[in-house]
Amino acid sequence: MTANEEQTMELEALRSIYEGDECFKELCPASFQYRVGNRGDPKAFLLEISWPEMYPELPPNISLNAFFNNSISSSIKQNIIGKLQEQVEANLGTAMVYTLFEWAKENQEQLMENHHPVVGAMTASLTENTVISNSSVAKKKEKKEQLSKSQKKKLADKTDNRGELPRGWNWVDVIKVKL
């Protein structure tokens, strides 16, 4: 079987396996991304794997350079790539993208054990405070005046398509009266 036929078969397998998986993204038929970890998880990372022309005889290119990974130190990125390269060497000559993604998922804790997300903790605390303050604001706004059907219709007739009153709706005509 040629390298091109193997790539086609692996591509079809990846598409069927990860269909509907929000963590998986096919950038092009030879390049894929997988988010290891849940959204909001400070130890999540985005793994990108692309195939060279002679893949699987040649190893795939592995990258952690996505913007998503900016909070991860370069030493941790190098460690992750090093561990994945060991998996690549063990699977060289076979379709391995699925294997690499699954290995990264299974070993996420070990790969990210030295990652200490300071920014993530601050963001979580700020988000928590924002949620609390927003809920108290929502409680204050609950007492809304109930309009009758006819009042709503009159209000709708006066407003434009964005629900805003037209410019000058409350202006008063000034009439000059001669005495």
TrEMBL record:
Ranges of residues in domain RWD: 9-111
Segments for region (Disordered): 133-165
Annotated PROSITE patterns: RWD
Ranges of Basic and acidic residues composition bias in the record: 154-165
SUPFAM superfamilies in alphabetical order: UBC-like
Coiled coil start-end: none
InterPro entries noted in UniProt: RWD_dom, RWDD4, UBQ-conjugating_enzyme/RWD
CDD domains, per database record: RWD-RWDD4
PANTHER family, per database record: RWD DOMAIN-CONTAINING PROTEIN 4 (PTHR21275:SF1)
Protein name, as recorded: RWD domain-containing protein
Organism: Scyliorhinus torazame
